[in-house]
């Protein structure tokens, strides 16, 4: 946040862009309290040491089916290295790989992505591999 009177919507938009999801799926929490995107750090009386959690809400399967988007889970070897990515069925998996590397701060690292035990090159399309929403792609470094 650049200033304490800037609405939290700017944080929502930034995180949505970083995570490759719709801003409507981003939820900001302060402890157990959901924060409104129209609120500002000043109105919430937040200080520099306060921690706001960012949660990505699962989208309903109906929406994903209509838009031809798959919700894929990408999991590194550490539990916290999980990212959910929305990807069109006809989009190369390289897009998903790049989003994961960027979100995890691993750009430039040598990572291998696997689906059902098969190493992925990034040129494959989810539709060609028979991927469905909820499928898991594993990442190894």
Automatic annotation (TrEMBL):
Pfam families assigned to the protein according to its UniProt record, in alphabetical order: Rad60-SLD
GO CC terms, sorted: nucleus
PROSITE patterns in the cross-refs: UBIQUITIN_2 (PS50053)
Keyword Nucleus belongs to the record: yes
Species this protein is from: Phocoena sinus
UniProt entry keywords in alphabetical sequence: Nucleus
Subcellular location: Nucleus
Coiled-coil regions listed in the entry: none
GO BP term (any one): positive regulation of transcription by RNA polymerase II
Name used for this protein in its record: NFATC2-interacting protein
Domain (Ubiquitin-like) ranges: 70-139
């Amino acid at each position: 946040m650049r200033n304490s009177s800037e609405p939290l919507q700017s944080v929502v938009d930034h995180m949505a862009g970083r995570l490759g999801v719709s801003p409507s799926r981003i939820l900001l929490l302060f402890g157990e309290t959901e924060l409104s995107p129209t609120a500002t750090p000043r109105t919430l009386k937040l200080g520099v040491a306060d921690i706001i959690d960012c949660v990505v809400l699962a989208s309903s399967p109906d929406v994903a089916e209509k838009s031809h988007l798959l919700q894929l889970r990408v999991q590194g070897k550490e539990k916290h290295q999980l990212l959910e990515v929305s990807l069109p069925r006809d989009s190369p998996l390289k897009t998903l790989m790049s989003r994961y590397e960027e979100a995890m701060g691993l750009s430039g690292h040598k990572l291998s992505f696997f689906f059902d035990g098969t190493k992925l090159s990034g040129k494959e399309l989810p539709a060609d591999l028979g991927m469905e929403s909820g499928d898991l792609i594993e990442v190894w470094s």
